[in-house]
Amino acid sequence: MLFLTKLLGAPISLPLAGMKFVFQQLADVADQELNDESVVREQLLLLQVQLEEGDIDEDEYGVREAELLARMREIKARQRAAAADATADAEVSPESNVGARRRMVIETPFDE
Length: 112
Fold this sequence. Notes:
Elements: H1 2-35, H2 37-53, H3 58-91
Helix pairs in contact: 2-3
């Protein structure tokens, strides 16, 4: 009976499972882009190369460098806050932790 339910539900559940996978991949990439220092470092290096090759002038370099350095400070602040939250969450039971990150779970028949 369970196999028949899965078979009949496949036209609906397969696209949902595919969408779930795609959304998870997008969330992972966005999270990595938002919290990865190496991406900002690469952008700073590229900016330096552009300045040396004459593609941008000193003024544009200064503005873009300031933006990238501000992003780097934000990333480091988020990392420090996450580390502090991790230590605080370890002391609070999961049931009483209202500040914990919320996740949306989409269940499909193929998740079993």
